[in-house]
Each structure stands twice: as structure tokens, then as C-alpha cells.
Design brief:
heterodimer; A: mainly alpha; B: mainly alpha; 0% strand
Chain lengths: 167, 69
């Protein structure tokens, strides 16, 4: 996590160096900001809906708070896991967007292979958590994020000749 | 601080917070990158918001169902 945040801060500095890449990065950053916020909002909405439904079911059955405390535990754990995944995803996709923009602006892709591979792993892990619908309904991943992941995957694949999977 | 850098950070901030940030910039209270970053939601800030949601649902359950935690 600290490594990702450090990379994000480095890219903020880097993208401030050239107006062309900076403009491209700005467009991506604006899109991603809205996308991550939307995912967090959906996560909250889903958690509220499921816990509200649980409360209603327990009330109809004449159960007390102790039953809610027990039965809501899995929902709350899944909600917290999604929060953590969103934080990781947020840091990873911003860094990935910076890489994609830098490459589009002429930077050599080989310079970013190691970071791209690390980010791809981090994004894949986060997306698995966010798309896991076993306890709470799976969250929708906005196209802005999948586009960044696709760019990252293409970069890693083209530079290594291997196959990567961002889930 | 380069204007484009300021703009990028401002635009990263959620729509709900952006007017607050812009007001702070206009008032001269935000003049450095570090000051501006304080407005970007942090992992701790996000955790606090989500924990508030959990607590609110918990209180709702307690009020609706009765009984002790």
C-alpha cells in the first residue's frame, strides 16, 4: 500500500512536468475519481439495503438485537473488506492511469513493466473482492476502471510477451 | 504550485467536497500541494465514513428490535 501511494505521489510530480501528458492524465483522473466514488457509494447502498432487510426480517420474526448482531456480522465483514479493496484499487488505478498516459505520451513502456505487473496484481486482488457476490451483491466495476486495467494488461503483456489476468 | 497540478488534485476530490476546496483556495487558505491533499479522502477518512454507516445501521437495529448489544 505504501509503495502504491509513493508511486501515486511520484506520478503527480511527473505529470506536472509536461503540459501534454498532464492534460491527458487530468482527463483520466477526473473519470477515475468519479468511478471510485461511485463504487464506494454503491458499496454503502448495498450494505444499507441488506442490513435494512435483515432488520425487517428479524422484526417480523420477533427476534431481538442479539440476533441482528450475530447475523449481520458476515455482512459487516464483507463491507469492510470492500472498503479496504477500494482503497487499494484507488491507489492502483491512479498510478496505472499515470503509466498509461506516460506511455501514450512517448515514454518507453519497458520502464514501467515492473510497476505495471505489480499494479495488475493489486488491481486483480481488489476486483476479486469487489466482484465477490457470495455475501453482498457483487459491485459493478465502471468502464473507466476496466479501461485503465485493460491498458495496464496490454502494457504488461506487450513488454513481457506473457499473459496477464486482471480479473 | 503549478495551476494544472492544483486543478488535477481539485478534480480528484469528490463533487461534494469540491466547492469546499474551491472556496478554501479562493480565500487563500490553500496555497500548497500538501494543504490541498488534506482534502482528498484518505484511507483513514474512508474507514471513518464506513464505520459511521455500520454504527448507524447498528443503532437502527437496536431501536427496531430492542434487546441489549
Amino acid at each position: 500500500m505504501k509503495r502504491l501511494l509513493a508511486a501515486v505521489l511520484a506520478l503527480v510530480v511527473l505529470t506536472g512536468c509536461a503540459s501534454g501528458p498532464t492534460r491527458v492524465a487530468h482527463v483520466t483522473i477526473v473519470s477515475l475519481g468519479g468511478a471510485v466514488v461511485a463504487m464506494n457509494d454503491e458499496s454503502v447502498r448495498v450494505y444499507r439495503a441488506r442490513t435494512d432487510a435483515l432488520i425487517a426480517t428479524l422484526a417480523d420474526a420477533g427476534s431481538d438485537y442479539a440476533a441482528y448482531a450475530t447475523q449481520s456480522r458476515a455482512l459487516t465483514e464483507a463491507f469492510r473488506a470492500r472498503r479496504d479493496a477500494l482503497v487499494e484499487l484507488d491507489a492502483a488505478v491512479y498510478t496505472a492511469a499515470g503509466i498509461n498516459d506516460a506511455v501514450r505520451s512517448g515514454a518507453h513502456p519497458a520502464n514501467y513493466v515492473a510497476l505495471a505487473t505489480t499494479l495488475l496484481d493489486a488491481v486483480s486482488a481488489s476486483l476479486r473482492v469487489l466482484r465477490d457476490g457470495r455475501v453482498l451483491p457483487a459491485l459493478t466495476v465502471p468502464p473507466e476502471i476496466t479501461q485503465v486495467v485493460d491498458g495496464l494488461r496490454a502494457l504488461a503483456r506487450s513488454a513481457t510477451g506473457g499473459v496477464s489476468d486482471a480479473g | 504550485m503549478p495551476a494544472e497540478e492544483v486543478l488535477a488534485l481539485v478534480l480528484r476530490i469528490t463533487g461534494a467536497l469540491a466547492p469546499t476546496v474551491l472556496a478554501a483556495i479562493n480565500s487563500g487558505n490553500v496555497s500548497t500541494l500538501d494543504e490541498l491533499r488534506k482534502f482528498v479522502p484518505t484511507p483513514d477518512g474512508l474507514a471513518a465514513m464506513d464505520e459511521a454507516v455500520i454504527a448507524a445501521q447498528d443503532a437502527k437495529a437496536r431501536a427496531a428490535l430492542g434487546g441489549t448489544p
